[in-house]
Amino acid sequence: MGLIDAATAPLRHVLHSAAGEAEAVLPVRDIEQIQSHVLGAVEAIRDATEQIEAHVEVVESLAASLAPLSEAVVTLSEQMRALPALTESVAKLTEQLGVVVSALEPVVHAEQEASRLGQIFSRRRES
96 pLDDT exceeds 70? Predict the structure, then answer.
């Protein structure tokens, strides 16, 4: 066996050295820690992807609401442009109502006088 040992000795030496270096470079615990970190990173990427998808849904719904909002703003702007005309119409109506009130004042006064006269005559009848 001496001759076989002599022939395989360099190969055994190389294999023994490689095994020792492998153990020195990356022990099993280090590989498990790396694997744990990689799995944690994968989980973080998955969570980030889900959050991005949720944000995309929110942005899409926001984008869908922009058109109706724009239409509402245009309608409101048109109504606001009509506001001075409405204010002017109310002022004219108030002015006309003032004329009506002035015209009705004598009628109201006459009605009050007639009511007093009616009360005077009704008192005399009761007596």
Answer: yes
Residue-wise pLDDT for 23-36, tens only, equals: 555 566 778 888 88
- Separation CA 43–CA 59 (nearest Å): 24
From first CA to last CA, the distance across the chain in angstroms is 160
From CA 63, how far away is CA 60, in angstroms rounded? 5
What is the rounded average pLDDT for all residues in the chain?
80
Q: Which helix (H) or strand (E) is 83 found in, with range?
A: helix 28-126
Pseudo-torsion of CA 97, 99, 100, 101, nearest 10°? 90
Q: For the whole model, what pTM was predicted?
A: 0.40
Q: Which helix (H) or strand (E) holds 21?
A: helix 2-25
Instruction: Give which of 93, 94, 97, 116 is closest to 105, Cα–Cα.
Output: 97
**Identity at 97, one-letter amino acid code:** L
